[in-house]
Design brief:
The protein is an alpha/beta fold. The chain has a single domain, classed as Trna Endonuclease, Chain: A, domain 1 (3-Layer(aba) Sandwich), CATH 3.40.1350. It contains four helices and five strands. Helix 2 packs parallel to helix 4. The longest helix has 14 residues. It is globular.
């Protein structure tokens, strides 16, 4: 169960596969870019409305035999503590999760998944 005490012990930013850049884009343009690039690469990209569970990554990317939960952020923005906690939970269960705030980060993830 999520508590501030166990969350702070388990969360470590370097464990989250955070892909950040200095180039500035609006959050909505990054989301549109992810959707378009996923489509161009024949991947599925769904918005994941987790209304019953806060902090869950907002996108699911499926392609080339892989499924990745993605938390999109505005450039330079970091995930909230609860989001970090949820990403840690996904990883402990053997899942893949990323935090991305740039076009470059999206391209890097798609290239990585295509090469696997």
């Amino acid at each position: 169960m999520y508590t501030k005490k166990n969350m702070s012990k388990e969360c470590n930013r370097k464990d989250f596969g955070i892909i950040l850049s200095t180039k500035k884009h609006k959050g909505s343009s990054i989301e549109k870019y992810l959707k378009q690039q996923a489509k161009n690469n024949k991947f599925i990209c769904w918005k994941f409305p987790a209304t019953h569970l806060n902090g869950v990554p907002d996108r699911i990317l499926i392609g080339n035999g892989h499924t990745v939960f993605i938390e999109l952020k505005r450039p330079g923005e970091k995930p909230r503590k609860l989001q970090e906690f949820r990403i840690k939970q996904i990883r402990k269960a053997g899942g893949h999760a990323r935090v991305i705030d740039s076009y470059t980060g999206i391209d890097a993830l798609l290239n990585e998944l295509k090469e696997r």
